Amino acid sequence: MFCNYCLQVHIQNRNIPVIIQELVDHKARVGEIHTLAVTLIPPYPTRVEWYNKDLLVRSTDSRIQSFSKEDGTASVCLTPLTLDDDGEWKVILINEDGLSSSSSCQLSIVVPKNYRKPRFLDNLKAVLTEEGLVSFECKVVGFPTPHLYW
Fold first, then answer.
1. Are residues 19 and 38 in contact, defined by beta-carbon separation less than 8 angstroms?
2. Across all residues in the chain, what is the average pLDDT?
């Protein structure tokens, strides 16, 4: 259901992306999976940019994935949350004419009492197997269980 104000703005400014469900402040625990999302009314923007603490989130970060769905939802999924994710998050929606709308929220990362920062017990080493293949090994501890990316 659209509010009258949203429809009036949309009709008067047909090219400006209109957000009908804004980002809201969240508290989440370190290590959890968390999604931030906004909902729009058509026409949908041609570009969606996500910012954390005023820095553009790059698609090269394998932990952070941005999605735009045909139902008008734009979201970013953080897998898993880290202490670096704490702070202001902003989404900017830009159409083909360069007109934009934005929404922002505060994401507060809660650290459990039993949290232990990941640390390496054994550094990364390359081991040559009997088959002639190279195997990489290391030992890491932490809580929640650390995720290793190669």
1. yes
2. 87
